[in-house]
Q: What sequence folds into this?
């Protein structure tokens, strides 16, 4: 009996000391929630007496070091804005370079077609020798003869030709060729703009995806720190015999999942950086950081419609293609009409390479000719070419109407998505605040023994999901706004 009475005071004294040394619920909650509102935290200190706690702290601190490594890599490189990224991508993208080259060559084709309307001048030089046939014939000089050539098509045994020749061809085909080259240049210019906007869409998408991936790392890091701190709290309460060991296990499982999510987020961020780096730098691994542009408000619907109708390259390309097909019909019909060829030559065509002959006759002179070839019969070839041109023109009309319908649909789709994403931002932000307050209250209730570990884990998951949804909603609005700007040609 004496031993029993002696043991009871010792046991009571131990409980009193445990209650005095243990942190109060308010202090425990202050330690727990010190990292909930902040996006970047350090790992919570763990008790040296608990190997499980040390492991959780080591894993959490490892996640913090990984985040610091990622952020340090970003800060070590140059800061890249959207405009700088677009400029670098345009210099490195081969498809866009090919589109630019096609546009420039099409402009030169127009200059070439214009030159075909002007007279061409050549300086023609030729020497002809024909075997003589043994006879002699008279020359232009009175009383003189020269050996006769064996071929009747040639004028003399020795013939020297040195003339400047100007030639001009006048016909409907030449004028329609110039107009056709102008339409082709317009098509190439529109296609280059389509390629530019496609590249812009790709770069902007990768740019914002890289930003979103970095923001997800911050969210997952906060969730990991929160889970690590909750592991510490459950272990402290287990040591005080306030909760069962099952609470510690549940908290540790949550921490392990958060650490895996953090690793996945870091991997996705690395992939996003490499994907964007391929378009920007000779070495995709070059360190850089992205700088988001200032947020802009959603433009009015009427302004977007006006700009989209005036600056849409697909519509311009379809209109220019239809114009080119109409000109192809005119070119095919031009085969029914004759071409007038004017020729003017000035120089010598004589037996001597000299301005004057040996007898004083002047060899230097000029000649002019006009040729008009009238088409008569070509076995319906011209008629069939006209039919081909009509068929292609009808197909171009279908493509134009399809482009117009697509533009209308894209305008409604992009504006509707941008408007909805903009309206949801306030709701998503409110959800984050609500989830953060819910976690705060749930942790307080858990510290007071009024909530279960499942309620805390559910509140943690709700806050993480709300933060990720807010980041996704922000990126969604920025991408939708960028799509509108691409549609209107303002980016």
A:
């Amino acid at each position: 009996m004496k031993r029993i009475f002696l043991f009871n005071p010792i046991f009571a004294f131990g409980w009193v000391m445990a209650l005095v040394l243990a942190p109060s619920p308010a202090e425990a909650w202050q330690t727990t929630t010190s990292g909930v509102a902040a996006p970047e935290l350090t790992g919570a200190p763990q008790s040296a007496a608990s190997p499980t706690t040390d492991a959780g702290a080591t894993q959490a601190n490892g996640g913090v070091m990984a985040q610091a490594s990622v952020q340090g890599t970003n800060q070590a490189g140059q800061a890249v804005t959207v405009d700088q990224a677009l400029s670098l991508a345009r210099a490195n993208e081969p498809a866009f370079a090919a589109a630019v080259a096609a546009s420039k060559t099409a402009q030169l084709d127009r200059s070439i077609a214009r030159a075909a309307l002007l007279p061409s001048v050549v300086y023609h030089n030729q020497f002809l020798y024909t075997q003589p046939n043994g006879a002699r014939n008279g020359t232009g000089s009175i009383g003189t003869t020269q050996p006769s050539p064996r071929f009747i098509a040639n004028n003399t045994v020795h013939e020297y030709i040195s003339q400047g020749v100007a030639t001009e061809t006048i016909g409907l085909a030449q004028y329609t060729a110039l107009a056709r080259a102008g339409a082709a240049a317009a098509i190439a210019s529109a296609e280059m703009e389509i390629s530019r906007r496609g590249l812009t869409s790709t770069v902007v998408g990768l740019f914002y995806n890289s930003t979103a991936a970095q923001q997800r790392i911050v969210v997952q890091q906060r969730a990991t720190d929160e889970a690590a701190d909750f592991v510490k709290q459950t272990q402290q309460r287990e040591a005080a015999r306030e909760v069962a060991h099952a609470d510690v296990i549940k908290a540790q499982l949550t921490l392990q999942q958060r650490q895996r999510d953090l690793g996945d987020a870091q991997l996705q961020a690395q992939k996003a950086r490499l994907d964007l780096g391929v378009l920007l730098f000779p070495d995709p691994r070059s360190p850089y950081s992205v700088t988001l542009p200032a947020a802009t408000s959603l433009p009015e619907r009427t302004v977007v419609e006006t700009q989209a109708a005036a600056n849409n390259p697909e519509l311009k390309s379809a209109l220019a293609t239809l114009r080119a097909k109409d000109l192809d019909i005119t070119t095919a019909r031009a085969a029914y009409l004759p071409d007038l060829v004017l020729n003017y030559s000035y120089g010598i065509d004589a037996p001597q390479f000299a301005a004057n002959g040996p007898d004083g006759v002047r060899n230097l002179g000029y000649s002019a000719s006009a040729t008009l070839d009238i088409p008569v019969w070509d076995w319906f070839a011209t008629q069939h070419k006209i039919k081909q041109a009509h068929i292609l023109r009808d197909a171009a009309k279908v493509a134009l109407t399809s482009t117009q319908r697509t533009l209308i649909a894209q305008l409604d789709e992009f504006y509707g998505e941008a408007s909805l994403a903009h309206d949801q931002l306030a709701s998503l932000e409110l959800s984050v605040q609500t989830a953060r307050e819910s976690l705060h209250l749930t942790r307080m209730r858990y510290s007071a023994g009024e909530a279960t570990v499942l309620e805390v884990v559910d509140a943690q998951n709700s806050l993480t999901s709300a933060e990720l949804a807010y980041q996704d909603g922000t990126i969604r609005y920025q991408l939708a706004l960028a799509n509108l700007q691409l549609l209107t040609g303002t980016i």
Observations:
- DSSP finds eleven helices and eight strands in the chain.
- The longest strand covers residues 158-170.
